Amino acid sequence: MESAMEQASRRPLEATLNEAQLLDTQRAFDSVAADYDGPRGNNELIQRMRVTLWNTVSREVPANGQLLDIGCGTGIDALEFAGRGYQVVATDWSPAMVGRTRSRAAVAGLESHVEARHLGVQQLDQLQEEFDGIYSNFGPLNCAPDLHAVAEQCARLLKPGGKLIFSVIGRICPWEMGHYAMRGRFRRASVRGTRGPAAVGMNKHTIWTYYYLPREFYRAFADLFTLDDYRALSLFMPPPYLVDYYRRRKPWYEKLGRLDDRLGALPLLRDMGDHFLIVMRKR
């Protein structure tokens, strides 16, 4: 068994490693910020997942409420909620992404509804506001080295009864496993099974990513939040990076999308998919 002295000596090394990984992830997103809305912005599968989160937030958080966006990217979600009447504090660890959000808000004339701040998920302790809801879309929390710390800060920042609505990259994606296994890329097919951070390449940089089953993810929040609901996103539909499949046979894949809508919240099925959408309430 590890001694208390050994544990104490290990913590500074872990902190150093976490900091290095966060800086790697920051550089990766900085490097793609200028073109991030190109193919992704026109990706029908991404948009489908966005709309699910948008409608869930609108249903769970009172109209005209205060929202915190963790990992805002270029601000697409923040501006959508501003247009729906919410006040949004949009945060991101990538300064280039924050710059894109500010520019987008200025062009849309929504600067009074969207405040973009350069703030990583590990820096939520710097916020002092209270929010009606906190959301995060497309996996920024998969890059958080300490989910328990995130849970504590979210509980501090939320008003009583406030909601968390997170879109998280899941551990079991049948499409991904099948796609890469059929091409003999078995190591790539199994990457989501990695325990601890997995090195995911993007634009010659590394994003350090933690993958979760929904209940694994919720475990870090369970002391402070009740689990209201969760569902699979892109289970029957292919993941967004396979959008060319969708475009070649759009009517057929739209039928699969309806299966996602109808069956994605069922037991067992909701534990799979490219992402999962989870809703939690502050105790």
UniProtKB/TrEMBL annotation:
Keywords: Methyltransferase, Transferase. The keyword Transcription regulation does not apply. SUPFAM superfamilies: S-adenosyl-L-methionine-dependent methyltransferases. InterPro entries: Methyltransf_25, SAM-dependent_MTases_sf. GO terms for molecular function: methyltransferase activity. Residues 68-162 form the Methyltransferase domain. GO terms for biological process: methylation. This is Methyltransferase. The lineage of its organism: Bacteria, Pseudomonadati, Pseudomonadota, Gammaproteobacteria, Lysobacterales.
